[in-house]
Amino acid sequence: AQSVAQPEDQVNVAEGNPLTVKCTYSVSGNPYLFWYVQYPNRGLQFLLKYITGDNLVKGSYGFEAEFNKSQTSFHLKKPSALVSDSALYFCAVRDGTNAGKSTFGDGTTLTVKP
Amino acid sequence: SQTIHQWPATLVQPVGSPLSLECTVEGTSNPNLYWYRQAAGRGLQLLFYSVGIGQISSEVPQNLSASRPQDRQFILSSKKLLLSDSGFYLCAWSVGQGGNTIYFGEGSWLTVV
Description:
The complex is a heterodimer of chains A (114) and B (113).
Chain A: E1 3-5, E2 10-14, E3 19-21, E4 24-26, E5 31-38, E6 44-50, E7 56-58, E8 64-68, E9 73-78, E10 87-95, E11 103-104, E12 108-113
Chain B: E1 3-7, E2 10-13, E3 19-26, E4 32-38, E5 44-52, E6 55-58, E7 65-70, E8 73-78, E9 87-94, E10 103-104, E11 108-112
Parallel strand pairs in B: 2-11
Antiparallel strand pairs in B: 1-3, 3-8, 4-5, 4-9, 5-6, 7-8, 9-10, 9-11
């Protein structure tokens, strides 16, 4: 079985400050981890993923995420937040045995205030 | 490049009426296709998953069905809609397995009245 948790429903940061959106996961095998962003009334857009290799993954729009195997976490980060980063963020996990099916977290709403 | 089209974008249907949401993918062959439902702007629930024509895996028993009549076409249907079927429906695709990314369409808003 696989699962993912996003412990914060809401994250508020000031523009220009660093942001972190948290994600923890559980899988039976090696994890494949993903972050997506969703703007109102739109589909999900892919930001970045971890498959293997370097624990720090860089993605679109200046976002990055750090894979931590011992803490089973994959937190999304950005050094300097923009107001336009305000959106709903989803973490997803899949293990290699699960035939391409991913499990998504419940989402975290990020609000960046000017 | 690959694109995914999903329609209609919005739909208001009475209880008991049928439903058909369509999704097509361009620019790739033999994709994995998915239907998700998102309620209240939060988490995604996987409804159906298909690895090939005529091969449909149902993840949640419910009032809906899915069909894949062509390689890059995925249809979500219902014979009689319930109020609880209201939500945001997302079609998605990927290629292969393992760490391949799932890409989403723009979604369809269904309101059952």
